[in-house]
Amino acid sequence: MVKKSLQRLYLFLIFVFLYLPIIVLIVLSFNNSRTRVVWGGFTFDWYISCFQDEKIMSAFLTTIQITFLSALISTAIGTLAAFGISAMKKRGQTICLGATNIPLLNADIVTGISMMLLFVRFMDLGFMTVLAAHITFSIPYVILNVLPKLKAVNRSTYEAALDLGATPLYAFYRVTWPEIRPGVFSGFMMAITMSLDDFSITYFTKGPGVNTLSTMLYTELRKGIKPELYALSTILFFIVLIVLLLGNIRPQRKAQQL
Amino acid sequence: MSKHLIEFTDISKSYDGSLVLDELNLYIRENEFLTLLGPSGCGKTTTLRLLGGFETPDKGRIHFDGADITDLPANERKLNTVFQKYSLFPHMSIAENIAFGLKIRKKSKSYIEDKIKYALKLVNLDGFERRSVDSLSGGQQQRIAIARAIVKEPKVLLLDEPLGALDLKLRQNMQYELMRLKEELGITFVYVTHDQEEALMMSDTIVVMNQGYIQQIGTPEMIYNEPENAFVADFIGHSNILDGTMLEDRLVEILGVRLPCVDEGFGQNRPVDVVIRPEDVELVSPAEGCMEGTVTSLIFKGVHYELDVMANGYEWLVHTTKHIPEGTKVGILVTPFNIQIMRKPESSDEKAVEVDV
Ligand SMILES: Nc1ncnc2c1ncn2[C@@H]1O[C@H](COP(=O)(O)OP(=O)(O)OP(=O)(O)O)[C@@H](O)[C@H]1O
Ligand SMILES: [Mg+2]
Questions:
Q1: pLDDT, tens digit, for every residue of A102-156?
Q2: By CB distance 3.0 to 4.6 Å, which of B92, B128, B211, B255 could disulfide with B96?
Q3: Which residue segment(s) compose the domain that B318 sits in?
Q4: Is A107 an 8 Å CB contact of chain B?
Q5: Is residue B351 part of a domain?
Q6: Ligand 1 pocket: which of B24, B45, B191 to mutate (most atoms <8 Å of CB)?
Q7: In terms of residue numbers, what domain contains A234?
């Protein structure tokens, strides 16, 4: 009994440490007062002025564009790469996977600086360089999600489809694709969260004038606290939460149906 | 004889430099039940995959119904395969699985429904339309795979060890069902197995393969009674295979004893392999036999006893219905008709017949 309640307490403490800062942030975003220490009543004002702020809105738009474009493109490239890797011999697979995993483990700041150095050599920093950077660091996540699914695909089902008269394209679409779709989908979700989440790489590869939400937050916060930013952070948090829930719930429900 | 439906001409195939099939020549007649029989890794699946269109040969041509199909993609060939590994589409229901090939052919809805009913009846799984693939046992899955293949009304059905994963009882049932199915459909079956009993029981023609070479082609009776070489004899059943010398026509020497036989045309003083089946060895009193030996072991096998008899330095395998205790002195007698003489492999081509069991 004691052990059980201790376990509960421990779990509770972990969640407090994990979520208390976010809860504070959320609460403050509704606080009708310019200072942090006083509770001045409940308000939606910060949300309203947040949506009226041009800087915030343009950063928001940029973020959405970067996130979806980079997720789409990296999902396409990563899925194709997974196909290539799965067709390789054992040795080639190990080398390729190692090569794609290194950027995952690399410190973001190192990746960010090295990309910046590369990009400034060939082009001006701006929207395109941020997009390219996001695509690059998302690809390994997609590969890691698709490859296991691809390996689990039974090759003889594809051949059986051919045997029954399907063209290679139709066989892929009807037989292989349904089996790897959950992996591609979760890879896409991962790419979205990674892209939304990123600060350091974006910070180094963006040109002047281009801002995503996270870099905009950073520059604004340095100038001084604006409660609009609490509202913005709260929105950002819930977007990521929803994306994650979507990514996790869908495959589970699918599994239950079977 | 009915016409040749499929012909393999000088087919060679290698993977990563190792030769799997070497100059294979084979024809398959219309409405034949032909079985490829051989130990694991001898190239049976490879042969079938070449026919199904999943591999292309390095050399040689394959003809089907008079037309060259060597380079025809799998989806355009008029034959269907039941694969060695389970290959049902897991995210489709049983009915959708069976309908897959028919939908590609753009058949009408009612036609497809009739066909599904008919096929499920044929494989004794009526009413399974809406079941999911996971909910089926291995044997049921394999039967659905057969149903899915036959609704396309192929001229030839290729089956790659379809019963390999099933238990003995189910396998025996399925063997009868497959034979019945073949009768009902009246099509050609090309069947792959490494189980010699299965092959002997089901086939019209057996092709015995080893290491990419065809060892013998013939009816089950021919393969069993007159194996052409030591490999076939050994693979088809446990047998006494002895080194011998053909002294002249109708006279062979084994283990230092001269025995009359019925074979001719081997030349004089030629080394040969001699096969004597365990059930053809008669045990008599020591004085009456052509060789004297001692029973070294006795195992009860149900219908008969299986004995080991040591005679002239060779351990004979003998099947008999008499109970002869260990240590008994016996005489071994073989009638000339039951001595099977086989040429020893000579050229390097024939190396594959070396018995390695
Ligand atoms: N895709 C492949 N790549 C490399 N080697 C292969 C490939 N497919 C088959 N082989 C080799 O070719 C040889 C013949 O294989 P095959 O599958 O035809 O044997 P099999 O007679 O069907 O055996 P089993 O009874 O075990 O199924 C084997 O040595 C196998 O390792
Ligand atoms: Mg095989």
A1: 888 888 899 999 999 999 888 888 899 999 999 999 999 999 999 999 988 877 8
A2: B92
A3: 239-343
A4: no
A5: no
A6: B45
A7: 229-258
